[in-house]
Amino acid sequence: MDDDGLLYRVYERRLTKELEAFELPQHLGVIVDGNRRWAKEAGETTAHGHRVGAAKIVEFLSWSEDLGIPLVTVWMLSTDNLRRPPEELVALYEIIATTVEQIIDAGYCVRLTGSAETLPEEIRSGIERAQRETSPEARLTVNVAIGYGGREEIVDAVRELVRDLGTEGLGADEIAERISIDSIAEHLYTRGQPDPDLIIRTSGEQRLSGFLLWQSVHSEYWFCETYWPGFRRVDLLRALRDFCRRERRYGA
User: Fold this and answer.
1) Domain count, the chain
2) Which residues does the annotation mark as catalytic?
3) How is the cofactor bound (predicted)?
4) Full residue range of the structural domain in which residue 202 is found
């Protein structure tokens, strides 16, 4: 091991030790951004960048499990991404399906977070089948956000809520009275789960782009310049250290 590698390991161990004194996030969100730019700078194809990024997701989840973080939401494909060139989408769908299988093979519980109707039938059925095979007893639950958009999620939640209330025979005014923050939250894709404590975004972009729009109202954010394929365990540890040092005010 060279001197740089040794220093890196020492720094990583120091950060890990430092985190032992803190309570880590119970729900970690991550916007995996920069695959295409990483591939371009490396002289590789876009598909190669997505494959390397997908492998990083599985690695990232193993770090989260080791640290005892029980819930991670990974944004793999947004509704905006669905407008990309068809040839890129075909490769993306294949990579996503393979990655979901790898996540399940690692022993994690998988939940689809997004609108399944936006995905091709073979991808949708494969993910739904994979979800049925996951164990709810897993140490780590992974929300795979595929075909996901924050605005679309809220619209879907309200539509589902209104339909449910409509089946009770309620009139328009009665339905309106029953719509609340809690009732909408009960119909989100992440229903029954805690809101994210910390959201990480890579590649230098400092915006959420609609990720967990409803759930992130009190989340802390951490942005880094590194493209997702280059994200390291030490970057996660630095994000967690920064989170643990903050005084959370929950909007106050």
Assistant:
1) 1
2) 33, 81
3) Binds 2 magnesium ions per subunit.
4) 23-149+195-245
